[in-house]
From TrEMBL:
UniProt EC number: 3.1.26.4
Domain RNase H type-1: 24-150
InterPro entries, A to Z: RNase_H (IPR050092), RNaseH-like_sf (IPR012337), RNaseH_domain (IPR002156), RNaseH_sf (IPR036397)
Keyword Transferase set for record: no
Record keywords: Endonuclease, Hydrolase, Metal-binding, Nuclease
Stated name of the protein: ribonuclease H
């Protein structure tokens, strides 16, 4: 896994790193970029000065992140500048604000960022340039980075970044979660929810008490109360033996005056994923809670 810095440095011993979004005229300018395309990763920098233009390309390990590629591009550009033009004022451009902000951090944990920061001196100025807005020099660096990703041989071998490991673990857990869902038989207690949400999701979080009732079919309704021997009751209108949550949300005539958008064809998934339907459902179930005695009858 990608290494972290071992030694802590007092913030007072660090030279502040500044960057801006200006594009000043300069004798020496270097544009950097990193790219990941078709599972391959590349980094590059393009040198622009009055005498000549040149580019340097590096293919990285396939498991490398774009953040790593952007960092390598800046790092190699700084090393090149120190070797060939150590005394010349140079402007370094990057479209990666995340890398620039990491260089600015006083508590750096990433060893690559720390190494890059250690290369900075008073002859260097960092600038952020917005990507893909037609800045010719930055577009040239972008093309070079994509070309670097397509190289046959890997030039820079990097350790797997922590973000990649976390993503792989999360994807593996999601895959296993989905398999568990699909392997459940039809008698499973969660089949109602399974029929609504056929795909698992880490971003789906249902916390509203009424939404949960629709998603689970558990709540204040005769079907649920009878099933768990909590109360012997039924719908006062007597129209449906399956007097469950969806009966009151979509069908029951006692609540017809509350429905504007919902009808008997609406599915739980449609209701939970549509804001107007969801708000109407909540209003209906609030009414059921408030007027339970008028809607349920004891058997």
């Amino acid at each position: 896994m990608e290494t972290t810095t071992q030694a802590w440095r007092h913030p007072g011993s660090l030279t502040p790193v500044q960057w801006d979004d200006h594009s000043p005229a300069s004798e020496l300018s270097i544009f950097t970029d990193g790219s990941k395309i078709n599972g391959q990763v590349g980094a590059a920098f393009c040198v622009f000065n009055p005498r000549r233009t040149e580019e340097h390309q590096y293919r990285l390990s396939n498991h490398s992140s774009v953040f790593q590629a952007e960092t390598v591009a800046i790092q190699r550009a700084l090393e090149w500048k120190m070797e060939h033009h150590p005394q010349v004022q140079c402007h370094i451009y990057s479209d990666s604000m995340s890398v620039l902000m990491s260089l600015q951090n006083h508590q750096i944990k990433n060893s690559s960022i720390q190494k890059t920061r250690d290369l900075l001196d008073s002859t260097l100025s960092l600038h952020w340039v917005k990507a893909h807005i037609g800045v010719a020099d930055n577009e040239a660096a972008d093309v070079a980075a994509k070309s670097a990703a397509g190289k046959e041989d890997i030039d820079v071998h990097l350790d797997i970044p922590e973000s990649t490991i976390k993503r792989a673990v999360k994807n593996s857990l999601l895959k296993r979660w989905q398999q568990n869902l699909e392997e459940r038989d039809e008698e499973d207690k969660a089949r109602h929810t399974k029929n609504i949400f056929t795909q698992v999701s880490r971003s789906r979080c249902i916390s509203n008490v009424y939404d949960i009732q629709v998603a689970t079919n558990h709540g204040l309704c005769p079907f649920y109360l009878r099933k768990f021997n909590l109360r012997a009751c039924s719908c006062r209108f007597g129209e449906n033996l399956e007097d469950d949550i969806m009966h009151y949300v979509t069908t029951c005539h006692l609540l017809g005056h509350l429905r504007t958008h919902i009808n008997r064809r609406c599915t739980p998934f449609q209701i939970l994923t549509s804001h107007p339907l969801r708000e109407e459902m909540r209003r209906i179930l609030r009414y059921v809670f408030a007027h339970e005695r008028d809607i349920f009858q004891n058997d």
